[in-house]
Amino acid sequence: MRDVKRRMENYSFYDRSGIAAHLEAMAAKGWQLEHMTNLIWIYRRSAPQRLRYAVTYYPGGSAYDPEPNPALAEFYELCEHEGWERVAGFAEMNIFVNRRENPTPLETDPAVELGVIERSVRRRLTRPYWIMLVVTALFAFLGLGNLFVDPVYALSGLYSVPAGLCLAFCAAALAVELVGYYRWRSRAREAAAHGESVETKSPCRAAQALLVCILVSLAFAALWIFIAGDNYARFSCVLVLVVNAVAFTLMQTSVDRLKKHGSSKGRTFVVSFALVLVVSVVLYMGAGRFAFGLAREGDNENYVNHSLSLSDLSGADLSGYVRAPLDRESVILAQSSVDESMHYEALGEDIGDLEYTTTFVKLPALYGFCERTASRGGESVDPEPWGALRAYSMGGDAYTLCYDGRIVEISLPFTPTDEQMAIVDEKLGA
Question: CATH 1.10.150: does it fit domain 302-429?
Fold first, then answer.
């Protein structure tokens, strides 16, 4: 039977009453809080007891303060005199336990308590959360924005959609947390003006649901990368997860040990940060050589289509031309693109640019959607010269060609002949 239990607790930083009620319920089940970090709370088994918990805040506190905090020594002594023993804390938060049946409350003035909470939350929650909300919302928009502009391009990418989805849920979770705090603060200020306090409550159902969505989206992103990515992408994904886990564990362990040995706040921060930085750099650099060796090993060449060139169509020597290929692949779609144009320093005949993109539809149910997207605004033309199932003129010398399992979007520098159409079919449609 385990004597120690570690749990990830999803309580808002300002939720003093919700945290106290939760710890009292855990004590009644035989588990008492022993230590806590920002994410993980550690409980130790004990006899089921009826205990009273209280949460207070110290606006000048930090996650790197030594334990016990010398600045709060006198306050701790006063609390102990009333039967309140400090059992854990994080940053500005301090948690006390009292074994008396009806102990004297630690906070008796609602206005003073609210002011302390506001100052602590402003530093710990609102300021960093607003910054993170703006950043995550911006990157979520960049990741998911193409779904509305060019959905086929977005869905063929390996990272943009799953990453954008994760960030969108994170932004929503931050917004819910901020809205919840501001609503409680408004009610608390009104109550404090009449000498009353307002209970806090978290986590709300929306926050819990968003946390589940974040975890599910992370799992979805990992699965998306592992199925469609090459060896390099898979290895990079695992490397990031491992390094982050090691860095987090190392940071928490080093900070806890330094704090217990009475290290100053500044020294604890510098030493722990430097240690994490060095270990992370070493891991990334050590794994980098191996990762580069996997960069192209085992790639799926079935979804690469660079076979057509202007030389094939014109028969001319176009040695001054350069090709810029770009390949994208996800679980459901893949795209292979080529932009062939004359180098700006090259000499010789410039007959124009060739651009084409081949979309490989891995999920047959999406073929109709991809065709409608690629042919929007186009005019149906005879597909037979192209060897295609269907063909659309997109204006000028641009065409959308539908083949079995793939859709080709091509822009030519000239009006193609039947012979040139057949070459396009041979190179891109087969």
Answer: no
